Amino acid sequence: MKKLILSAVALLLLSASCRTLTSTTSIKSYDAFILGNNQHGAFSVKLKNVSANDLELWRAPIEGGQHSPLTVKPNETVKVSVEKNTALKIENKNKEQATVELFVKGDTGLSMGYKN
C-alpha cells in the first residue's frame, strides 16, 4: 500500500512539473519573441523585465491580429493569462538587447521563436 501511495504522489508531482516552464530569454534590439504561435490550450505567464528599457506585450491570436497591449517597465513583474490558440508577443523596441524571466503555467506545448 505504501508503494502505491508513493507512486501516486510521484506521478502527481511529475505531471505538475510537466505543466510549467521556466526560461530566461534574451530579445535582440528591434525584435520580438513570440510564445505560443501554434495551436494550444490556455496558459499564463509570469514575466519579469530584467532589462533597462520598457517592453511591450501583446496577445496575438494565431488566425491574425493583436490586442491587449501592456507596457512592462524595467524590473517590473506582470502576470498575463493567454487564451487558447493565442500567442504572447514580447516586443523590444529599443537599441539595447532585452532580457525577460518567464514562468509559464498551463499548456506548455508552445512554439517559441523570434520575429523582427
Describe this structure in words.
By secondary structure, this protein is mainly beta. The protein has one domain (21-115): Jelly Rolls. Helix content is 14%, strand content 51%. It has one helix and nine strands. It has one helix spanning 2-17; strands at residues 20-27, 31-35, 43-49, 55-61, 67-72, 77-82, 86-92, 98-106, 112-115. A five-stranded antiparallel beta sheet has the order 5-4-7-2-9, with no helix packed on it. The radius of gyration is 16 Å and the shape is globular. The chain starts with a helix and ends with a strand. 22% of the residues are buried. The model is unreliable at 6-14 (pLDDT under 50).
What would you say about this model in short?
The protein contains one helix and nine strands.
Low-confidence stretches: 6-14
CATH topology: Jelly Rolls
Number of helices: 1
Round the mean pLDDT to the nearest integer and report it.
Answer: 88
The largest β sheet comes out as:
5 strands, antiparallel
Spatial sequence of strands, sheet with the most strands: 5-4-7-2-9
Shape: globular
Radius of gyration: 16 Å
Q: Indicate the proportion of strand residues.
A: over 45%
Going by CATH, the architecture would be Sandwich
Whole-number tally of structural domains = 1
Structural class: mainly beta
> How many DSSP-defined strands?
9
CATH top level assignment: Mainly Beta
Question: Approximately how much helix is present in the residues?
Answer: 10-25%
What is the H/E string?
Answer: HEEEEEEEEE
End-to-end distance: 56 Å
